[in-house]
């Protein structure tokens, strides 16, 4: 009766899996001003060349540098668990496995990409990274990674989360980063938003504008993004590569693969190796499911269209599922899932039917997290709880149909800094925001016109 399935350190992946090699050509990212495909030169003011190369690489596998592997080895390979006590509680014939990314120093999957990003920037002679953060997970991951490579770090943190999660800010401080509540009055983008609405809760889209502007206006500074982009999804594939090995050790292959979706990176990480098997036809039947909040339902209710990644329209136009770049989602407690768009690769795979998406309200998500904590012990992040909820629903479906499916989900992070959110849940203060149809309709009407 194995509960924890562990890979020895030597079996940590030596290469990332690049799913672009197995997909039809993607729609190119477009320059926000000219509408023409972006060139490496367009991106070089804010990204190091190696990451620009990885963004469009055609190689199926890309080597993980030794210095990056040495740091990843502080917590990788991460454990894969069989959730036997949860299965028993649900009386399901399904087998539930979860990959646990809460073991990293910052407590989530995000250091998997923060470390290589800091490394490639250090190699390129950059001295400071600017970034945004929602719930504070990405900001703390990048603070940790930059510290290990001797870089400075400035984090624009969405104001609503800055107030809800003060200890995330403290973590960034411990790791030597500067953390500011966004919108700030330090950037043009921030000042503009504050003028329009001084009480704004902020959003990831606004914070991205601030960080990009900071990087673009300082030559020693680059920008770093914790999700959405192809190179971020690439770095996260260590999760799925390890999980596939670990499942093979117990002679399993998943029928269902589940991950929560903010910008799509942890879902990409757990699912791309399995999606690759599906595309290549070796495992055509895998059900690959992204889970998002009903209050910010980009994959389930958005449009597959070109849009900016930020509010001010400074980023390249990406073809993705979007709710409109100036959509400000309700201040739900899964702050890391409040993004208007999604990874272009995940979007394309959903559009092409390789993956699908579902959405849930926050109270049912916290109930699932409670069930998980009371059976498996771990108190998960509100973001991860969306994946827990979908896995539980899938297992209950199996109880009805009698199918003994193998369900794999990514447990993207711990909830140790999310106790104020659990507290709001227990006080009955969590609002199940209806899908904000009218707001989304308005913001979709303001999508940029492309060719
Ligand atoms: C940031 C975050 C997410 C959402 O981001 P993705 O890029 O969609 O993975 C999910 N879970 C946790 C714990 C996070 O910190």
Kindly name the structural category: alpha/beta
Task: List bound small molecules.
Answer: pyridoxal-5'-phosphate
Please give the order of strands in the largest beta sheet: 1-4-5-15-10-11-14
CATH architectural name of the largest domain: 3-Layer(aba) Sandwich
| Low-pLDDT segments, ≥5 res | none
Overall mean pLDDT stands at 95
> Number of domains in the coordinates?
2
Radius of gyration: 20 Å
CATH class of the largest domain: Alpha Beta
The CA-CA distance between the termini, in Å, is 58 Å
Query: What is the β-strand count?
Result: 15
Task: Categorize the overall geometry.
Answer: globular
Number of helices: 18
Largest sheet, strands/sense/barrel = 7 strands, mixed
Q: Write down the CATH topology of the largest domain.
A: Rossmann fold
Kindly state the percentage of residues in helix. 40-55%
Topology:
Elements: E1 4-5, E2 15-17, H1 40-43, H2 49-56, E3 61-63, H3 66-72, E4 80-82, H4 84-90, E5 95-100, H5 111-123, E6 128-133, H6 137-148, E7 152-158, H7 159-164, H8 166-174, E8 178-182, H9 188-196, H10 204-216, E9 221-223, H11 230-249, E10 256-260, H12 265-280, E11 287-293, H13 298-301, E12 303-308, E13 317-322, H14 344-351, E14 356-360, H15 362-376, H16 382-401, E15 406-411, H17 419-426, H18 437-444
Parallel strand pairs: 5-15, 6-7, 6-9, 7-8, 10-11, 10-15, 11-14
Antiparallel strand pairs: 1-4, 2-3, 4-5, 12-13
Bound molecules: pyridoxal-5'-phosphate.
Written overview of the protein:
- By secondary structure, the protein is an alpha/beta fold.
- The protein has two domains: 14-64 and 110-228, Rossmann fold, CATH 3.40.50; 76-107 and 231-445, 3-Layer(aba) Sandwich (Rossmann fold), CATH 3.40.50.
- It is 41% helix and 16% strand.
- It has 18 helices and 15 strands.
- The protein has helices spanning 40-43, 49-56, 66-72, 84-90, 111-123, 137-148, 159-164, 166-174, 188-196, 204-216, 230-249, 265-280, 298-301, 344-351, 362-376, 382-401, 419-426, 437-444, and strands at residues 4-5, 15-17, 61-63, 80-82, 95-100, 128-133, 152-158, 178-182, 221-223, 256-260, 287-293, 303-308, 317-322, 356-360, 406-411.
- The strands form four sheets. A seven-stranded mixed beta sheet has the order 1-4-5-15-10-11-14, with helices on both faces. The chain has a four-stranded parallel beta sheet with strand order 8-7-6-9, with helices on both faces. A two-stranded antiparallel ribbon has the order 2-3.
- Helix 6 (137-148) packs parallel to helix 8 and helix 9 packs antiparallel against helix 10.
- The radius of gyration is 20 Å and the shape is globular.
- The mean pLDDT is 95.
- Pyridoxal-5'-phosphate (PLP) is lined by residues 108, 110, 137-138, 227, 260-267, 336-337, 381, 383-384, 412-413.
- Pyridoxal-5'-phosphate is lined by residues 108, 110, 137-138, 227, 260-267, 336-337, 381, 383-384, 412-413.
């Amino acid at each position: 009766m194995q509960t924890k399935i562990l890979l020895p350190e030597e079996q940590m992946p030596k290469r990332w899996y690049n799913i672009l090699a197995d997909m039809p050509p993607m729609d190119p990212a477009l320059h926000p001003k000219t509408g023409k495909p972006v060139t490496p030169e367009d991106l070089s003011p804010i990204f190091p060349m190696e990451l620009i190369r990885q963004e469009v690489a055609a190689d199926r596998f890309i080597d993980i540098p030794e210095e990056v592997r040495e740091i990843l080895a502080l917590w990788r390979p991460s454990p894969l668990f069989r959730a036997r006590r949860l299965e028993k509680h649900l009386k399901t014939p399904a087998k539930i496995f979860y990959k646990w990314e809460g073991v990293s120093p910052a407590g989530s999957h995000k250091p998997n990409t923060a470390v290589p990003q800091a490394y490639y920037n250090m190699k390129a002679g950059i001295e400071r990274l600017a970034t945004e953060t929602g719930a504070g997970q990405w900001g703390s991951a990048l603070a940790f990674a930059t510290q290990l490579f001797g870089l400075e770090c400035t984090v624009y943190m969405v104001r609503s989360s800055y107030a809800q999660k003060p200890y995330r800010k403290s973590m960034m401080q411990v790791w030597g980063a500067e953390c500011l509540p966004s919108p700030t009055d330090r950037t043009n983008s921030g000042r503009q938003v504050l003028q329009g609405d001084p009480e704004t809760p902020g959003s990831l889209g606004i914070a991205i504008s601030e960080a990009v502007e900071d990087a673009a206006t300082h030559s020693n500074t680059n920008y770093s993004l914790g999700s959405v982009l192809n190179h971020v999804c690439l770095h996260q594939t260590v999760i799925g590569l390890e999980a596939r090995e670990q499942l093979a050790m117990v002679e399993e292959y998943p029928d269902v693969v589940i991950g929560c979706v903010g910008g799509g990176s942890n879902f990409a990480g757990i699912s791309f190796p399995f999606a690759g098997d599906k595309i290549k036809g070796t495992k055509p039947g895998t059900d690959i499911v992204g889970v998002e909040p009903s209050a910010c339902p980009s994959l389930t209710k958005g449009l597959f269209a070109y849009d900016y990644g930020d509010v001010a329209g400074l980023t390249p136009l990406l073809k993705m599922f979007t709710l409109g770049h100036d959509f400000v989602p309700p201040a739900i407690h899964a702050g890391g899932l409040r993004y208007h768009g999604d990874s272009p690769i995940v979007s394309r795979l959903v559009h092409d039917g390789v993956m699908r998406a579902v959405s849930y309200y926050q109270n049912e998500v916290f109930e699932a997290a409670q069930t998980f904590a009371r059976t498996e012990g771990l108190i998960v992040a509100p973001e991860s709880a969306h994946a827990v909820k979908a896995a539980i629903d899938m297992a209950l479906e199996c109880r009805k149909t009698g199918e003994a499916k193998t369900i794999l989900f990514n447990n993207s992070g711990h909830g140790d800094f999310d106790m104020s959110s659990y507290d709001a849940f227990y006080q009955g203060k969590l609002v199940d925001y209806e899908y904000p149809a009218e707001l989304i309709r308005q913001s979709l009407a303001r999508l940029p016109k492309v060719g």
